[in-house]
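Assemble and predict.
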Amino acid sequence: MSVIGTRMPRKEDPRLLRGRGRFGDDISAPGQLWARIVRSPSAHGQVRGLDVTEAAKAPGITTIITANDLPPGLVIPVRLAVGSADLSPYLQPVLAAEMVRYVGEPLAVVVGEDPYACEDAAELVDIDVADLPPVIDAVGADASEHTAAELTLGYGDTDAAFARARHVVSIELAIGRHTGVPLEPRCLLAVPGPENPDLGELDIFGMTKVPVFNRDLLAGMLGLDEALIHVHAIDAGGGFGIRGEFYPEDFLIPWLAIRLGRPVKWTEDRAEHLMAANHSRQQYHRITAAFDDGGRIAGLRDDIIHDNGAYCRTHGVAVPELTVAMLPGPYRIPAYRGRVRVVLTNKTPCGTYRAPGRFEGTSAREHLLDVAATQLGIDPIQLRERNLLTKDDMPHHRHITTLGTDLVLDTGDYPALLAAAVKEAERLGYRTQAHLISPGDAAGRKPRGFGLAMFVEKSGLGPQETADVTVSNSGAVHVFSGGTSVGQGIETVLAQIAADALGVDPRVVRVVAGDTAAQPFGAGSWASRSTVVGGTAVHQAATAVRERAVRLAARMLEAAEEDLEVRDGSIGVRGDPKARVTLAAVARAAEPAGGYLAEGEPAGLSARRRFEVARMTYPYGVHAAVVEVDAGTGRVRVLRYLVAYEVGRAINPMLVEGQLIGGVAQGIGGALFEEFSYDDAGQPQAISFIEYRMPTAAEIPPVDVLLAQDAPSPGNPLGVMGAGEGGVNAVGAAVANAVRDALGLAGGIGRLPLTPARVRALADRALADRALADRALADRREGAA
Amino acid sequence: MKDMHAITLRVNGRDHDLVVEARRTLADMLRHDLGYTGTHLGCEHGICGACTVILNDAPVRACLVFGVQADGAEVRTVEGLAHGEQLSDLQQSFSDHHALQCGFCTPGFLMLTEAYFADTDTAALTEEQVRELVAANLCRCTGYQGIVEAVLATARARGDAKDLSS
């Protein structure tokens, strides 16, 4: 039986449970110095002076650097370039020189013997900024002055579709600014080589997600050969998009280590993280759909303002592009136009957060559908059924490109998954529960509601991934992957894939993920790509090793290759239990002096394979929620939550469920609690976990998962689709729809997250809506009488 | 002039003598002076609970306690939970129930739970009580479901074991 598809316990668990993980700040180097970043206290202003004299005299301080000490013109470039907009004027300098544009922008670095001393000295740096008026509200900002880029995607004649339409339904929806906030803060340790610092030999601990890309970028910025920089694989305390992008600190710390000839370590504190690492999500949608007589969508338009904060960072305008590219979701939409204007504000710059652009777009589209269902007098589930693409439509070309790939919905049966999800929600009593009156609430002050949302995800972004697989003399299998371990269980999944291809016990497989010396061609772990693209590369490399092992075993056993079978870590002649060699013996035979190599044949039982793929693969899902709203306090409780999700094939269902459930919790955070707000002066109001409210176990209900494996991806030999982002994608939408249902709102909820104050205002509006409807009804009756 | 203090403490049964600055946190002392890096710092302001250790039988946020306050004390950290190479029942239960992903918050949840179990009738614990307990700490990966299940399963198993032995 194949180990693929089993709920194998994770290989990562024992070390993490014993406190033996190796996270960034756990690693130290002899003689290391510590760094502390001095950050702008002002949201917008001209730097008149930056006096480090007093700070430099503080005890234990080695050096303090400002922009004047750096090579001129250093900026953080775009990693994921999309579209044609020139973003070069909006890139972030490594250290601000003349202008500061958000609170938290790096201005200087203090380096010293002890982190406490560095923090003290950083307080002594005298920062003189002449404040300028900050731009806080992207919607109200002068478009001609603050727009960084505009993108429009779409197809078909939307004007004609809207002109002909029987019904036109429109809502506005604001998505709150929030982000991944992994529990481990960012940290980085850079250790210069012992030989000759001029060579720039450098060991780095703490880069993750895209270590090879970051290594190459750093090499270019430092003017070094990239092969001299070794980024080590370590544990990372959560990724979620935010961790591992190239930030100013990713240049500053290695540059200081080389310049000082000593290891330099930097660990941010939580306040820094919340104001300096990428924010995400903040958008304002004005979305409109045109329907025909039968409730079929004739056209869809969305006009979006994307608040990108103060600069364009490594993702450039990829998130706004993804928003409009993925917005049509799983529906048949004859004409579509999505337009997004990227506005720069004096807030923390933005990047990706798990399901970037989809959480936002799904929220807008699915909430619009519920409002449309009310206005058209159709059940919201029926309205979706009428508009879904079907199995016969697959593959469906959207005639849109995103991230440089054609958007082709490759496989699936959307109506079948919707039907399965509805059936499962019924079976679990969701609808009944949604219409029960809360215990002890005869007055109806705690209405309940049911909400559903459907979505298409994207996964397996290429264009390629490389893997090396080697069998050592003990028979152990070593996998060197370009992915990185960010908590998703990549070591376990890749071990299962390699074990399956090689016919070995996954316990003998050791996976190294994200070490640039062990895998110099890795493209990293992001965009739900590791299992799809990285996993396929491992499958191919392990299959190649198996083929080579069979060739060598044939020589050893003096048998024909076609008579051999591979199982349980050995290769033998079918039907002859004595004629058998272990994989370990084959590995020894492949040594330079092993005695079985042909002339000129390279030694070693290993293979490197590169998997290349032109398009992404598109998993899809349904979310359903039951909520209870306290109309008095405005508190929303999520009582039940269901995710139905198609993954093609689950390598390890336990891990897929874990990804989905964890995603739901983050989604509930973004739907109800988490928000980076700013005051009028541009001061961030959420710089601790007291104000930035991540959900605890008390806010997250048990999540029901319906894992479907009915539509294997045609794009890779394993048939897999990514699972990293399907849990968070539609939570904003499902919760918004459930709250709207509970309150009986005529229109939309207007803004996420649904904080108590906003919910109370909505409850008041719902009362007014009802009073208005009652009066209209009474008037009609009177008129009739 | 640093305000230094000589202290002694016992960590996971091992005695340590050291000199620490008065303002140094217990978490930094454990991690950087004594090498117990399994205690993690997620917020340094007492909310996330990743740094939870057991100080004289009580769970504490090691980021909110000064190292000098542990003078003469007995401290238990995550490194002290396993029996040699054998994971403890709670650790094993976390793995069985997929109660960890990145594993950064895990030591805090383990120590919080062990401290709570030490003076609780675990056999009678309800899911609601377990949720309330683990709501003390933050996890960003799991959605808490595996954590609740793992803690509940261990509570039941320990409760059963106690019943059998009594």
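Residues 221 and 273 of chain A are 24 Å apart (CA to CA).
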